[in-house]
Design goal:
The complex is a heterodimer. Chain A is an alpha+beta fold. Chain A has 5 helices and 5 strands, in the order E-E-H-H-H-H-E-E-E-H. Chain A has helices at about 25-30, 30-45, 50-65, 70-85, 160-170; strands at about 5-15, 20, 95-115, 120-140, 145-155. Chain A has a 3-stranded antiparallel beta sheet with strand order 3-4-5. Chain B is rod-shaped and about 75 Å long. Helix content of chain B is about 40%, strand content about 15%. By secondary structure, chain B is of the alpha+beta class. Chain B has one helix at about 10-50, and strands at about 70, 80-95. The chains are: A alpha+beta, B alpha+beta. The interface between A and B is large, with 69 and 68 residues.
């Protein structure tokens, strides 16, 4: 299990008695599960930035925030740009051969419903989903026998449109 | 990414290594970006609760502004009596590696 190492949580002080205020942040308490799933959403999900935008709308309604969404959206846009930049890094060492392959995998997505497991514990319903990671590997013919990942694309199936997106980026 | 693979049809172990390499490549970008977004959420939640932006002066008002956060000592819940007082550091679990 990984974790976000450095999160700076704001603290408040009561001016009447100069003691700490107990602040329970909705974004950490109510939406705790979202952050647990965030890395998975970023790579194999339907888009982390889109999920974050949806989350910000729900969060704004929950806490009654009328301001601040613009700043949050700027941060989300920055993250989206950095995620897409990963796929746009120039290929400096051009391989002689490029190999294309699809790697199928199963992922589990959490559903809205709750059910009881065998030990009577309440659990979110989960649904398995098959998806494919389309990968392009560079092969060098210098005798080293090495391959490097040039780029990749997550898709629901190995269809022409998905492969084209990947090939066009290359 | 500079992970080396043998020259053959992708097999089980190699496929896992590729997926692992992709995840590793994305990890730092996601962690940095998500931390910044989450940090902004926290700051904005304080702004919303207090009804004033960071570094803006507190309100002197006879009208209380009750919120669902309370002083741990006197149980006061009037946002006009609360002020920002720095940050504490914590970590947050994510689903990496699961």
């Amino acid at each position: 299990m990984g974790h976000l190492d450095v999160l700076w949580v704001p603290m408040l002080e009561c001016q009447q008695c100069e003691h700490d205020v107990v602040a329970q942040f909705a974004i950490l308490e109510k939406y705790q599960r979202f952050w647990l799933d965030a890395p998975h959403r970023a790579i194999f999900g339907s888009g982390l930035a889109r999920s974050l935008r949806q989350l910000s709308q729900e969060w704004a309604a929950t806490v009654g925030a009328s301001v601040g969404l613009r700043t949050i959206n700027e941060r989300i846009n920055q993250l989206e740009a950095r995620l897409s930049q990963v796929h746009r890094e120039p290929i400096t060492d051009v391989p002689a051969v490029v190999q294309f392959d699809g790697i199928w995998l199963s992922t589990q997505t959490q559903q809205d419903g709750i059910h009881e497991d065998n030990r009577k514990r309440k659990r979110h319903r989960k649904r398995g989903k098959r998806m494919v990671v389309l990968v392009t590997l560079g092969l060098w013919t210098d005798g080293s026998g090495k391959r490097h990942i040039l780029d990749w694309e997550v898709a629901e199936k190995e269809e022409q449109a998905a492969w084209e997106r990947l090939v066009q980026r290359l | 990414m500079s992970r080396a693979f043998s020259q053959a049809k992708l097999k089980g172990e190699e496929r896992r290594a590729i997926l692992q390499a992709i995840q590793t490549q994305m990890q730092q970008v996601i962690i940095d970006g998500v931390t910044q977004v989450l940090q902004e959420f926290l700051e904005q939640e304080v702004t919303t609760k207090l009804g004033r932006a960071k570094r803006s002066p507190g309100r002197i008002s006879s009208q209380a502004r009750p919120i669902d956060w309370r002083c741990a000592h006197c149980a006061c819940n009037d946002a006009n009596q609360f002020s920002r007082d720095g940050h504490y550091r914590r970590s947050l679990e994510t689903g990496w590696g699961t």
